[in-house]
Amino acid sequence: MKTKDKIIIVGAGLCGSMLALRLVQRGFKVALYEKRPDLRKYVLDAGRSINLALSPRGLWALERVGLKERVLEQCIPMQGRLIHPLTGDAFLSPYSGRKDDYINSVSRPGLNTMLLDEADKHADINIHFDHDVRNVDLENARINGYDHATHSDFSDEGLVVIGTDGAGSVVRRAIMAKTTDLLFNYSQKFLRHGYKELSIHPGEGGAFKIEKNALHIWPRGEFMIIALPNLDASFTLTMFHPIHGDIGFNALNNEEKLKAFFEKYYQDLLPYIPHYVEEYFENPVGTLGTIKCYPWQAYGRTLVMGDASHAIVPFYGQGMNASFEDVRVFDELMNVHGEDWKSLFEAFQDARHKNTDAIADLAIDNFYEMRDHVDDEDFKAKRELEMKMEQQFPEYYSKYSLVTFKPEWSYEKAMIVGRKQDELLLNIVRSCNGHTDPASALEKIKELHKTLEYEI
Predict the structure, then answer these.
(1) Which of 178-182, 299-303, 321-325, 408-412 bottoms out in mean pLDDT, i.e. has the lowest?
(2) What's residue 1's pLDDT?
(3) Three-state secondary structure along 174-207?
(4) Which residue in 311, 354, 307, 304 sits closest to 330, CA to CA?
(5) Which class for 150: exposed (0-12), middle (13-18), buried (19 or more C-beta within 10 A)?
(6) Are 302 and 175 in contact (CB under 8 A)?
(7) Phi, psi (rounded to 5 degrees) for 315
(8) Whole-angstrom Cα distance, residue 388 to residue 378?
(9) What is the pTM of this model?
(10) Residue 36 sits in a domain of what CATH number?
């Protein structure tokens, strides 16, 4: 491969491997660099997120690289949230009143493996694992770093460099170092909560011990546990919890305190997790942060996308979907700008950054909704009304449905319309004690849309 006849991609995760596939399908040569070993040859670290929620935005992008149907074969559909309150019976809150609207639980390493396997089929994609990119020459699309396999330095140069290397992106840091020249803006905000992963093991004969086709939530005000199903009939549980304070992760530091806490708040979950004490103390605490930045490109030679440009918290299930949507939008813009990289990069960042800012804000909103409001009476009344509206009038989409099941709408548009709808419907159910005619509510929503200059 010649020095300058290829595109360099830094980061072979979900976004980078999909981007590499799409670019080689367009006829480019790709050099894909990944600092970690090949995930197909080693086991993921315990306690790190192993499954994700795949929705239509992500599926639309997967269809573009020809993998949608194969990926769906590896998914478990989830029809809604199964809420497990502290007192009272569990209940299902469907994601939508339309029976065909659901999200999919998918294995992160399984999906990444499929993308990498597909990339390996193309002679024009060269994947370099164990290659730690440490410096990026933004203006000349040149990288250098350290090859851990050979214990030697390496360098490479291409047409352009695209960083898909996650929240800790070295490519973004190189752009950040040019703050004065590029007027680079950057923010990183952490929730005061972290996460720790637990699990429910498969039952006898590979049976699911709890409902298979749902995302389970145990909401407890300041904290919660969620569970997503896996193909082997296990569930990945994620404990979202304050890091500090009287009941924070730091305070639950011995077996006695931990058992007392779970017996008080998660009594109904305990029969399914007899091994939780061992997992709790074995698995690390992860942090939950949001990254926003602008610009995403430098000199028409270097670009960041995916988590490298817009890392978000996981509470809307849109992190992977937003990154895959980056690839789809980038691909569409290539039809307009071709290999005019500067205009392409500028058009891409301007099309995407306001939308990824929107989904970042929505993800924070959904954290508080899932934690505090899913068993709130007003919230449940609003959701019941929305379900009836979607069942009777399929043209109506709730805020969640606009984001999750209407990928032709931008995140920004879905946020603006969805927030206004939520406000209106909450006012309606509060004033009518929940006894509202769905047709009447829909008419009010249509009037709202007219004031927003959007059509339903």
Answers:
(1) 178-182
(2) 40
(3) HHHCCHHHHCCEEEEEEEEEEEEEEEECCCHHHC
(4) 304
(5) exposed
(6) yes
(7) -85, 0
(8) 16
(9) 0.93
(10) 3.50.50.60
Q: State whether 313 and 447 are in the same domain.
A: no
Structural domain range at position 411: 376-452
CB neighbour burial string for 415-445, b if at least 16 within 10 angstroms, e if fewer: bbbbebbbeebeebbeeeeeebebeebbeeb
- Three-class SS of residue 447? helix
**Same domain flag for 114 and 37:** yes
pLDDT in tens, 294-321: 999 999 999 999 999 999 999 999 999 9
Residue 74 lies in a domain: no
363 and 301 housed in the same domain = yes
Q: How is 108-153 classified by DSSP, letter by letter? A: HHHHHHHHHHHHHT-TTEEEETTEEEEEEETTTTEEEEEETTTTEE
Residues 360 and 415 in one domain: no
Please confirm whether the linkage preceding 295 is cis (ω < 30° from 0).
Answer: yes
Residue 393 has pLDDT above 60, yes or no: yes
Q: How far is CA 320 from CA 65, 198, 202, 317, in A?
A: 16, 21, 26, 8
The two structure tokens encoding residue 367:
């954290």
Exposed / middle / buried, residue 90 (Cβ in 10 Å: 0-12, 13-18, 19+): middle
Which H or E element spans position 51? strand 51-54
- Give CA–CA dist 312/360, Å, rounded: 5
Does residue 362 sit in the same domain as residue 387? no
CA distance 413 to 406: 11
- Token pair 């670290």 in the structure block, residue: 45
Residues 296, 433: one domain?
no
Does one domain contain both 136 and 38? yes
- In angstroms and rounded to an integer, the radius of gyration of the C-alpha atoms of the chain is 23
Mean pLDDT of the chain: 93
341, 30 in Cβ contact below 8 A? no
Mean pLDDT of the region 352-365: 95
* Element containing residue 161 per DSSP (H, E): strand 160-163
Give the pair of three-digit tokens for residue 122. 């193309």
Residue 29 confidence (pLDDT): 97
Nearest to 68 by CA among 57, 76, 60: 60
User: What φ, ψ does residue 188 adopt, rounded to 5°?
Assistant: -135, 120
Q: Determine the average pLDDT of the residues in 41-53.
A: 72
> Distance between CA atoms of 394 and 411, rounded to whole angstroms?
20
